[in-house]
Amino acid sequence: QKEVEQDPGPLSVPEGAIVSLNCTYSNSAFQYFMWYRQYSRKGPELLMYTYSSGNKEDGRFTAQVDKSSKYISLFIRDSQPSDSATYLCAMSAGNFNKFYFGSGTKLNVKP
Amino acid sequence: GAGVSQSPRYKVAKRGQDVALRCDPISGHVSLFWYQQALGQGPEFLTYFQNEAQLDKSGLPSDRFFAERPEGSVSTLKIQRTQQEDSAVYLCASSSGAVVSDGYTFGSGTRLTVV
């Protein structure tokens, strides 16, 4: 079993929809949680960072961490066609120099 | 530079050939990472440098993989006697290491195809 599980999708939604992306994990030592966005043939770029449990909001993006359930989420409000990309969750234990990534969820926002 | 630069962008190697992949991190970033991303998968950790010291190489899949960063700046990932299972995108990332929330800055990767 992989340490981080993520539904690969693809997920197709109409423009303006609310998108929910999720990851589960097995290692209770994970404390640092990140969401990256990856466009085709590009490297991942950091979207959101959360430490331990709780919520964090940045513009149209909200990240949630539920450590008791080992479950993290990324919500995108008012989704745009430019949000079409693969979204990767990543997490790390105390040593944040080694991150474990999910396999990515491919999102397509239709105009 | 403004971002992490990787070269070449694409590399086709015949099975058994040696390859060298280069990474130029963001100037001043002390931490440098190599990840391997297979098709349809997330990046998997290979190795980590702090300046010139290789502090973690636990992700290197075999002794055919070797990474170096001799002057604490540019890094090279070398793969000897390439095999088909080595075909993947190799991503380099750098970090200042000062602020966790800054995360990594990734390059666009080198896509290696072994034929």
Offer a few descriptive terms:
heterodimer; A: 111 residues; mainly beta; 6-stranded mixed β-sheet; 5-stranded antiparallel β-sheet; 55% strand; B: 115 residues; 7-stranded mixed β-sheet; 4-stranded antiparallel β-sheet; 11 strands; globular
Radius of gyration of chain A: 13 Å
Distance between the termini of chain B: 33 Å
Sheet/helix structural class of chain A: mainly beta
Strand content of chain B: over 45%
Q: What ranges of chain B have pLDDT less than 50 throughout 5 or more consecutive residues?
A: none
Mean pLDDT of chain B: 94
Order of helices and strands of chain B: EEEEEEEEEEE
- Poorly predicted ranges of chain A (pLDDT <50, ≥5 residues)? none
**Largest sheet of chain B at a glance?**
7 strands, mixed
Radius of gyration of chain B: 13 Å
Q: Quick one: overall form of chain A?
A: globular
Molecular structure report:
The complex is a heterodimer of chains A (about 110) and B (about 120). Chain A has about 110 residues and is an all-beta fold. Chain A has strands at about 5, 10-15, 20-25, 30-40, 45-50, 55-60, 60-65, 70-75, 85-90, 100, 105-110. In chain A, strands 2, 4, 5, 9, 10 and 11 form a 6-stranded mixed sheet that branches. Chain A has a 5-stranded antiparallel sheet with strand order 1-3-8-7-6, with no helix packed on it. In chain A, strand 6 (about 55-60) and strand 7 form a beta hairpin. Chain B is mainly β and about 120 residues long. Helices cover about 0% and strands about 50% of the residues of chain B. In chain B, strands 2, 4, 5, 6, 9, 10 and 11 form a 7-stranded mixed sheet that branches. Chain B has a 4-stranded antiparallel sheet with strand order 1-3-8-7, with no helix packed on it. In chain B, a hairpin with a 2-residue loop joins strand 5 and strand 6 (about 55). The model of chain B has no long low-confidence stretch (mean pLDDT about 95). The interface of A and B includes residues 8, 46, 90 and 100 of A.
